[in-house]
Each structure stands twice: as structure tokens, then as C-alpha cells.
Write a structure and sequence with these properties.
The protein is mainly α. This is Colicin D immunity protein domain-containing protein.
């Protein structure tokens, strides 16, 4: 496994297992991804980048959902679970 991938896996697991809130996941994931300096293979990067887009589409306040692309907590959790599946397949 790429050593830099483990923090992502741990963060995503914390979120899908409800140990952290969607708001906390959003803050931590965006910061982690933006600060990343490791070079991942294309499939891994595409998965992490796709989750970045999903996190960016997360809107905490349901009253502010004004686009079909906006995600709520559960939708973001589902997308994170899919990303985790892909990352752990890459991990082996």
C-alpha cells in the first residue's frame, strides 16, 4: 500500500462508521487532499479526486440545497463508502 493512502482510509472509515460528523469529515478531507504531496497511481488519484468533488458538493444545511448535485450527510457517506471500497481494492 502507498503509505500516504492510509490516512485517507482511516479518515473515510471514521466518517462512514459515524465516529466523526460530515462537517468534520469535510474539513479534514479537504485539508488533507489540498496538502497532499504524494504521487498516486491514476486509479487511486481519480478515486481521491472524485471524493474531493463529492465533499465539495456537500451542503450541511438542507435549506441551502439548491442544486441536484448538492449532497447531504447520508449521500456523502454513501459516496465515501464507495471510495473506500475502491481504495481498499487498490490496496489489495
Amino acid at each position: 500500500m502507498h503509505a500516504s493512502l492510509q490516512p485517507y482510509i482511516e479518515l473515510i472509515r471514521s466518517f462512514i462508521e459515524r465516529r466523526i460528523t460530515a462537517d468534520e469529515f469535510e474539513t479534514r478531507y479537504l485539508a488533507m487532499f489540498k496538502a497532499e504531496t504524494a504521487h498516486f497511481d491514476e486509479d487511486t488519484f481519480d478515486t481521491l479526486d472524485g471524493l474531493f468533488a463529492d465533499v465539495d458538493a456537500y451542503v450541511a444545511d438542507p435549506a441551502l440545497h439548491d442544486s441536484p448535485e448538492d449532497l447531504d450527510d447520508e449521500q456523502l457517506r454513501a459516496r465515501a463508502a464507495c471510495a473506500l471500497d475502491k481504495l481498499t481494492l487498490v490496496d489489495g
